[in-house]
Amino acid sequence: MFCKSKVRTSLTLMVAFLFLGALPAAHASSRIKDIVSIEGIRENQLIGYGLVVGLNGTGDTLRNTPYTEQSLTAMLERLGVNAKGETMRPENVAAVMVTANLPAFSRQGNRIDVNVSSMGDAEDLKGGTLLATPLMGADGEVYAVAQGAIAVAGFSAQGEAASVVQGVPTNGRIANGGIVEREIPFELSDMTSVKLSLHNPDFTTAQRVTRAINRHLKNSMARALDPATIQIDRPIGYELALVDILTEIEQLPVKPDQKARVIIDERTGIIVMGAEVRINSVAIAQGNLTISVSEQPQVSQPGAFAQGGQTQVVPRSSVTVEETGTEKLTILENAVTLQDLVDGLNALGVGPRDMISILQAIKAAGAMQAEIQVM
Fold first, then answer.
1. What is residue 164's predicted lDDT score, i.e. its pLDDT?
2. Which range is the signal sequence, renumbered to this chain (predicted)?
């Protein structure tokens, strides 16, 4: 029997590096439409409860899910079938929750995709058909009706002594399975002002967007209210409508600014460093201590013709200590960039396992001019 264990003094995480935005790319321009959202233009979430039929014996067990039986009885009564008081044991029916997102400016008759998820003990929704299900908004009003055959990506198979499940067979999707029945009133063309909301709030970015809009329209229509909000007011008598103004400005290029930030996910070992990260002059050395313990027990037993004695296991252990890492200090000069930081750590021969500890130590020493966020 052989076993081996290792104890490391550094943080032993499998780290994947995602260095986003080298310096030239960090100052690349983005369109205004890609960095802002317009107030009032958003999706609305819909939800409904329905029944799926046509399953191949993989539906709900009515004994365990009484609400499925109640729903089935009520549906049959609406269709003129009296099933009240009858004992039903169908295996081809499942109770499901149906969800969808109603896009902005959806009109009556538009089709939307819907998601179907089992809420009982159904094993598989493959081959099932969702019956007409009203989809309601947060106000309790019905905005769409969903129905259709369910497409399931996962599957399950079971034998006498083994089973295989791939993906999630109790969750499916109906492409264009919902029909919009009610519109959400929102008339953008009648508005005299609109607010733009930055996806990543920042004072500098807000001012840059404001200046780009006013410079293009040759009018002081835009003003930054806060780091996340820019308001555009259409002057009385202005020849362009608000829709035309938004069409004009959404293609304007702007250079977004960002805070110097390092994101660390200790669970997965992922590190993301922004291009604005700066390091003051600092010296770094890195090393690891590895202790290896090997067990190779020996079996001692008496000879074939021995009159006495018994078989025993004699433990034999081997312990080795190895210290690895750099043998010298590496100096990172003052105010180095992200690329300089990466080059300096690579010069140390630092592996991904130690990067998190080094970055946290640099921050603790006050040499990193950036914010560290641990997820």
1. 75
2. 1-28
Q: Is 219 in the same domain as 273? A: no
Domain span including residue 205: 30-41+187-254
Q: Are residues 14 and 133 in the same domain?
A: no
For the record, the structure tokens of 90 come out as: 């169908």
Among the residues of the chain, which ranges form H helices?
Answer: 23-26, 32-35, 66-78, 203-217, 242-249, 338-347, 352-364
Most confident range (mean pLDDT) of 50-64, 140-154, 340-354 is: 140-154
pLDDT of residue 146: 97
CB 41 within 8 A of CB 126: no
pLDDT value for 373: 81
Convert the pLDDT of each residue in 237-292 to its tens digit.
777 788 888 988 999 999 998 888 888 877 777 778 777 777 777 676 666 545 45
Residue pair 277/359 in contact (Cβ under 8 Å)? The answer is no
| Tens-place pLDDT, residues 121-180 | 898 899 999 999 999 999 999 999 999 999 998 766 766 667 777 778 899 999 999 999
Mark whether 15 and 85 lie in a shared domain. Answer: no
Judgement on whether residues 171 and 292 belong to the same structural domain of the protein:
no
Q: At what angle do helices 242-249 and 203-217 cross, to 10 degrees?
A: 110
Tell me the C-alpha distance between 354 and 12, whole Å: 7
Q: Which two tokens stand for residue 337?
A: 């960039």
**Sole residue written with tokens 């009203």:** 134
